[in-house]
Design goal:
5 strands; extended; 95 residues; mainly beta; two-stranded antiparallel sheet
């Protein structure tokens, strides 16, 4: 092993801008929309049913091909309806 790291990474990054401020709690939204298609690859296949209770971090959709990504719940709650959304691309005729 050519590199040894002790105590984790310590990147410099303007910490003086915030190191004297208290840590704040952020809000957790009541509803999130998680697209099953994360990029140009195949959409993930849902693994949970509508109304099923999910926990934060639980896998809710599994990758479905070579270029695909699994999806995990960002909040705990109940799975809502799965809807297909169209992707719109601007074309020269839509100007």
């Amino acid at each position: 092993m050519p590199y040894k790291f002790y105590g984790g990474a310590h990147p410099s990054g303007f910490k003086t801008l915030t190191n004297d401020r208290p840590v704040k709690k952020t809000f957790i939204p009541k509803k999130v929309i998680l697209p099953l298609s994360q990029h140009t690859g195949l959409a993930a296949e849902p693994m949970v049913a509508v109304g099923e209770t999910v926990k934060v971090g639980q896998m809710i959709a599994r990758h479905s091909g070579y270029i695909s990504a699994s999806l995990h719940a960002s909040i705990s709650g109940k799975a809502g309806p799965q809807r297909m959304c169209r992707r719109f691309r601007r074309t020269s005729s839509s100007r």
